Amino acid sequence: MTKSVTAENALELADLSVAYRVAGRNRAVLRNLSLTIGQGEAYGLVGESGCGKSTVALTVVRYLPRNGSITGGAISLDGQDVMKLDAEALRRARAESVSMVYQDPGKALNPSIRIGRQLTEIFELGGIMGQAAQDRAIAMLNRVRISDPTSVMQRYPHQLSGGMQQRVAIAMALANDPSMLILDEPTTGLDATVEAEVLDLIAQLRQELSASILFISHNLAVVSNMCDRVGVLYAGMLVEEGPTEVVFNDPRHPYTVALLRCLPRGGQRKDQGRLDTIPGFLPGIGAAIKGCAFADRCALADDRCRTESPPLYDLGGRLSRCHYHERAQALPRATPSNVAPAPRAAAAPVLRVAGLNKTYASHGHALRAVKDVSLDLRPGETLGLVGESGSGKTTFARLLLGLVPPDEGGTIELEGKALAPRLADRSDDQIKAMQIVFQNPDSALNRSHSVRHLISRALKRLAGLSGKALEARLNDLVRSVRLTDRHLAVKPRQLSGGLKQRVAIARAFAGDPRIVVCDEPTSALDVSVQAAILNLLADLQSKEDVSYIFISHDLAVVRYLSDKIAVLYLGRIMEFGPSEDVFSGPHHPYTEALLSAVPRLDQTETARIRLDGEIPSATNPPSGCVFHTRCPRKIGAVCEQQEPPLSEAQPGHSIRCHIPYGELARLQKAVVTEPA
Amino acid sequence: MSAIPTSSPTPDDTRQRGPLAEVLFSLLRSGTFLTGLVIVLFWVGCALFGEHFAPYDPLADDIINALAPPSAAHWFGTDQIGRDVFSRVIVGSRDILTVAPLATLLAAVAGTALGLITGYFRGIVDDVVSRILEAFMAIPVVIVALLAIVALGTSKTTVIVVIGLSFAPIIARTVRSAVLAERELDYVAAAQLRHESALHTMFVEILPNVIPPILVETTVRLGYAIFAVATLSFMGFGIQPPSPDWGLSISSNYGMIGGGFWWTVLFDALAIASLVIGVNLVADGVHGALND
């Protein structure tokens, strides 16, 4: 393969407009988008879902779906005009010079073909056959740091973990040494620890390869760590662009300012005030935009913004599409940060769990999903549950709710009274006292029922209301989750993700619960919507004195809402204590690794701890300390032979580790890990 | 991350078409569905009003004109006792279009209930009921019909019950698999967390969400039911003389084909085929509209 003469820019989009044809009308998705990516440059594209990020990726290689069309502008890839390529030239360009990696590697790989075959196929297209193709494939797998490439070649995609699959997808993307690599949310579906590995890999590959990168993500922190320059997309328009560090530290567009403010940062907690939000919604695709697209949601907007559409102002090395870019940071908060009263350290625990176990039978092996978990929770407190997927967080929540019966022996006490292990044996009072907000509202809300039906049914069953009283309570409840009457008549599918989650929250609060389990309630939402939901949960908590069990993989979110944290690994509590103690340390080596894996906006490069390999199978957990196979601080044979007890290092703060507390403190001080 | 929007994703848009309106909209644009609908409606019209526009009394014999070939007076000719085949084909749609839909309805109701129960309770209930249903499915309809006729005597009701009950397990199987998928969704757990009864969860929570597959399966079954009714009538277990029913007519005339009197059989056979094709086109259209 001979590469054409290298053009100045790897990718140039000039005045690109793309529309989707929906219900017989062309609706604009990208509006006169211009951007350039230099040779070897990594360019990040950020924005909320629906703003056109993925469309950019698809357009570059002309992979638009059937109802999409390029309505104007030019795309130049390595100096080649992509619009003018015929089918064969386009195929060659896709095969040789551009590669894409998508969010879900499970879907990008063919489930019925072995990894090796999928890789060699790419080389065979380039004319390399047989053993040579095999060797190249193995070399590619080595390059993406897969330690045992020959055995991975023999496997099918489903036999690999998500992180491994994504590495294979990256290996395939790099196979032809592309000049342009498009990464569309490549780590979004992965655990934080795996995400960190994949990001490290991409960062290392950048040093070795000449490829330019278009990195698309909704996660500002990930982009800030990976990219040289960043573009902020809003309603299909570039609203701000510049060097990553400059844009994130000194944003000049109110949208960027607002996006950054939505994130819980610097260890912010619910008792230090609410998160800021962005009011309103992204304009729908194809909406006619007069003036500035963001004006409706911007507190700085005046008449000029609503009538005169702002150009991309050149601010010397950076661009901003705002008339008032010089005072963008003066954007007033959309949500007052009024500090809620600090929770009273009071009262007997509302929930007490002792010796809870859950064992599943899996192909004749015992799978211990939850092992010997004991903890307690006070009224008005939030317990954060963290850990990688497969650590038993959700199983634990389901045990508490009675959706899954625990093994014999453990006890769950609600306000001093033992709860029956099975849901059917619990009293109505006990049932309404503990409710859940599920991760995915599409699954949790019955799509055949109207919002009114969903909430009133809960009020009827849980609060025992009917008639006028029900109607009155329904109105209160709907207000308190900030929905309006007009939302009541519709079916869930007609609502956005954030609104659906509010309906689910209203339903959970119907019977004045004592405890609400929140199972990743914001993981499917955009940051601005996430902030609004987190604020709502914090407000409801201070008003109703309800306790939360909050499950999330996003440590900053957990930290914002939690008073106590339990870190789970293979169904065991590795660390338990007040939120601040767990985050500030000294902490369990696993907690340390989890914290270290979180990508941060401030780019303070700390010595990062990486966990090797994957979480071991729960059917065959490692001997001794279950974490010893991956522990960066393993001290020796004792870790392999004896399971350390969960011992109280400080009042209320327990750690399951053989390393004494003082020693952990000394070790972890050496690497200053300023938590997320 | 964001999927390609196929409908306007305005987050707060509460004025979208409802799901039912959307299905109707795409049905009305489906050529398959409309073609099938025209065929089916034609036969329904014949069943309801056929005797008013049939040129002759379908039961009146006219021995002198027996076995007359198609002509201007008798478009489809006459049968062995001189009855007008054209009139008989038109009026002959009546019995089959009563019996087959009722049998299908019975199958749909019984099958939905069985499918909800097996899919919802799973475990031992599912194992026992499903094995019984499978055993039932293994017996050919004709044998069941023979036994039922011996036990109950020949009547339209017998045919409806026999076909209804033979098809119920097939519909139950479809419903069961749809319910098993719904069962995993969190709204079922949410219902349990409200102490809803099993009946409420099955019929109020789950049933509305499995209507689409039930609808498709029922329309498909209607095609088979028409075929089954015709078969049973042909074999003498179904609709009884003197009805001008198609299957029955074929049965009493097929001996004539050898003598070159093809018209006594062909038009009835075409009628059956066109009705089955019409129903299948409708089923195809419904399937397409619901799975868009």
Summarize the structure.
Chain B: It is found in: Cell membrane. Chain A has 676 residues and is of the alpha/beta class. Chain A is 33% helix and 22% strand.
Topology:
The complex is a heterodimer of chains A (676) and B (292).
Chain A: E1 9-22, E2 25-38, E3 42-46, H1 53-60, E4 68-77, E5 80-81, H2 87-96, E6 98-101, H3 105-108, H4 115-125, H5 130-143, H6 149-153, H7 162-174, E7 180-184, H8 192-208, E8 212-216, H9 220-226, E9 229-234, E10 237-243, H10 244-249, H11 254-262, H12 303-307, E11 313-314, E12 319-320, E13 351-362, E14 365-377, E15 382-386, H13 393-401, E16 411-414, E17 417-418, H14 428-433, E18 434-437, H15 441-444, H16 451-462, H17 467-480, H18 497-508, E19 515-519, H19 527-544, E20 547-551, H20 555-561, E21 564-569, E22 572-578, H21 579-584, H22 589-597, H23 637-641, E23 646-650, E24 653-656, H24 661-670
Parallel strand pairs in A: 3-8, 3-9, 6-7, 7-8, 15-20, 15-21, 18-19, 19-20
Antiparallel strand pairs in A: 1-2, 1-4, 4-5, 9-10, 10-12, 11-12, 13-14, 13-16, 16-17, 21-22, 22-24, 23-24
Chain B: H1 19-28, H2 31-53, H3 85-91, H4 93-121, H5 123-137, H6 141-152, H7 156-183, H8 186-192, H9 198-206, H10 211-234, H11 246-253, H12 263-290
Helix pairs in contact in B: 1-12, 2-4, 2-12, 4-5, 4-7, 4-10, 5-7, 6-7, 7-10, 10-11, 10-12, 11-12
